[in-house]
């Protein structure tokens, strides 16, 4: 049986890569497409790290595992909490490989913190593996735990770059630190695969998409992709390896920031309450300004250590409050609707949910900018999700047009603007490419679902496909794998414990929960 390496390229899209491929900047990616199989992919909604890395690895949409975005919104209980890897109720493709007696390694995988045991190893990745708001973690991100020491001593490995990129103006040490991290991801994944004779390895390049967000198609992103391209050439030359490239979602240049909760308030769906954040915002005191000052003074680590977390949380962000702080800024008894960022929208069960939802969907479909409607569609939650957790999900899901960033900040005062912090925004359109001894070159396929990748990898390893995976085995094999179906595994006992506050902090700094 041939080994498989899956390279997860966070935020990769052919829209970004095609001009560089045509210009000869990425010759190995061009060669892989010419000699292998490739396609565009469609992500689950919302097209975000949480939940789409788990959509890939589980073969399910969020209705199948219960995580719909970085936060869980329960308006009935009046609670919003940040999600982590322990909140996903699902087995993943490496669990099924293990169940068939095959070894697997997972390196730098988002949605895997806190790390859990598999046979052989897990290295949790950003943005959710964190320790404090402005510091990278130094331990606790691997399974087995002692693997962290080996990674750090042998590879000088770290989960997050230092210094951390936090603005479009930082093109020096911050970019170099990311490029160094990407190189080490490849080194760790390939070295451990060979030394431990692993049957399967997945490695994610999460900070690749951080470069997309801040720079889109500018030089820092191109430099990162040239590094990736060099590694693709090395890996594609190996005759003992099935190579799969994929992304959790795509990206495109940001045209419009849409502050959905500000729009909800303006249109009568949300009633505001006075909060300390609103006062601080009015006088220009926000987290982005303070972080910039702290970085210039070299005091980031010092302030992170000495300023209590509860005090840090009181400082609002430029575009308003997020997560559970949103509920402090609204009168929930009178508020009909609260939105997360980038897609999910929740109707307060204190009101007539169906009538509110009907009028809300109609109103959202009318929202436009100079380029046209902001949303390619507006859905009922049950029309895009499947599985046991649909009822816990959002009542409405917007499919943001490529180039639109749906921002969930409350209190910033703006409804629409041009690009704010991010030069590029997520889209549902990612990439897939495959080559290797077990794959028959097919050229370009029609667009596939991100849910198709896990069953296809399992089929490549001769494993039966769990009946709760919603994807299909892709027609990429030189011989029909004829693997059949199997009963799903339960993973409840293997999932980690809660560490939601730490996860929130890292998400905020990176801009995922601005």
Descriptive notes:
This protein is an alpha/beta fold. The protein folds into two domains: 3-253 and 425-507, 3-Layer(aba) Sandwich (Alkaline Phosphatase, subunit A); 256-421, no CATH class. 33% of the residues lie in helices and 20% in strands. The protein is built from 18 helices and 27 strands. The strands form eight sheets. Strands 1, 2, 5, 6, 7, 8, 9, 23, 24 and 25 form a ten-stranded mixed beta sheet that branches. A four-stranded antiparallel beta sheet has the order 13-14-18-17. Strand 15 (368-369) and strand 16 (372-373) form a beta hairpin. Helix 2 (27-35) crosses helix 8 and helix 7 packs antiparallel against helix 8 (219-236). 55% of the residues are buried. Pfam families: Phosphodiest (PF01663).
Keywords for this structure?
about 525 residues; Alkaline Phosphatase, subunit A; 10-stranded mixed beta sheet; 18 helices; about 35% helix; Type I phosphodiesterase/nucleotide pyrophosphatase; hydrolase activity
Short précis:
With 514 residues, the chain is of the alpha/beta class. 33% of the residues lie in helices and 20% in strands. It has 18 helices and 27 strands.
Count of folded domains:
2
Q: Specify Rg, calculated over alpha carbons.
A: 22 Å
The major β-sheet equals: 10 strands, mixed
CATH superfamily placement of the largest domain: Alkaline Phosphatase, subunit A
Strand content: 15-25%
How does CATH name the architecture of the largest domain?
3-Layer(aba) Sandwich
GO molecular function: hydrolase activity
Protein name: Type I phosphodiesterase/nucleotide pyrophosphatase
InterPro entries: Alkaline_phosphatase_core_sf, Phosphodiest/P_Trfase
Organism: Haloarcula amylolytica JCM 13557
């Amino acid at each position: 049986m041939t080994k498989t390496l899956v390279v997860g390229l966070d935020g990769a899209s052919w829209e970004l890569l095609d001009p560089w491929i045509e210009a000869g900047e990425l010759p190995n990616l061009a060669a892989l497409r010419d000699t292998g199989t490739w396609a565009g992919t469609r992500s689950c909604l919302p097209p975000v790290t949480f939940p789409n890395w788990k959509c890939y690895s589980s073969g399910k949409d969020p209705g199948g595992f219960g995580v719909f975005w970085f936060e869980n919104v329960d308006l009935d209980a009046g609670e919003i909490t940040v999600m982590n890897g322990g909140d996903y109720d699902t087995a993943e493709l490496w669990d099924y490989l293990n169940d068939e007696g095959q070894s697997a390694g997972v390196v730098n995988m988002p949605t895997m913190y806190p790390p859990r045991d598999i046979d052989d190893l897990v290295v949790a990745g950003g943005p959710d593996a964190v320790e404090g708001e402005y510091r990278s973690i130094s331990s606790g991100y691997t399974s087995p735990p002692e693997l962290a020491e080996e990674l750090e001593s042998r590879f000088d490995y770290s989960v997050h770059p230092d210094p951390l990129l936090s603005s479009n103006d930082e093109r020096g040490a911050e970019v170099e630190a990311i490029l160094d991290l990407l190189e080490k991801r490849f080194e760790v994944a390939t070295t451990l695969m060979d030394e431990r004779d692993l049957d399967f390895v997945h490695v994610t390049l999460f900070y690749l998409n951080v470069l997309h967000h801040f720079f889109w198609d500018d030089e820092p992103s191109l430099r990162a992709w040239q590094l990736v391209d060099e590694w693709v050439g090395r890996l594609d030359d190996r005759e003992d390896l099935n190579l799969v490239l994929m992304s959790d979602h795509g990206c495109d240049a940001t045209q419009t920031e849409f502050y959905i909760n500000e729009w909800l308030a303006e249109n009568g769906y949300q009633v505001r309450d006075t909060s300390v954040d609103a006062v601080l915002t009015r006088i220009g005191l926000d987290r982005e300004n303070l972080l910039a000052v702290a970085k210039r003074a070299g005091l980031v680590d010092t302030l992170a250590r000495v300023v209590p977390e509860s005090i840090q949380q009181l400082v609002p962000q430029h575009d308003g409050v997020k997560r559970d702080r949103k509920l402090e800024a609204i009168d929930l008894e009178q508020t009909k609707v609260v939105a997360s960022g980038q897609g999910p929208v929740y109707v307060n069960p204190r009101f007539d949910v169906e009538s509110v939802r009907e009028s809300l969907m109609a109103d959202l479909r009318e929202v436009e900018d100079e380029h046209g409607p902001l949303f390619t569609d507006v859905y009922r939650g049950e029309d895009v999700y499947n599985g046991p957790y649909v009822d816990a999900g959002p009542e409405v899901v917007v499919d943001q047009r490529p180039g639109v960033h749906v921002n969930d900040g409350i209190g910033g005062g703006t409804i629409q603007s041009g690009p704010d912090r991010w030069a590029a925004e997520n889209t549902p359109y990612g990439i897939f490419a495959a080559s290797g001894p077990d794959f028959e070159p097919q050229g370009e396929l029609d667009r596939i679902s991100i849910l198709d990748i896990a069953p296809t990898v399992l089929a490549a390893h001769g494993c039966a496909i769990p009946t709760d995976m919603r994807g299909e085995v892709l027609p990429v094999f030189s011989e029909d794998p004829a693997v059949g179906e199997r009963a799903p595994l339960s993973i409840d006992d293997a999932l980690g414990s809660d560490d939601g506050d730490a996860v929130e902090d890292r998400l905020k700094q990176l801009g995922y929960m601005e």
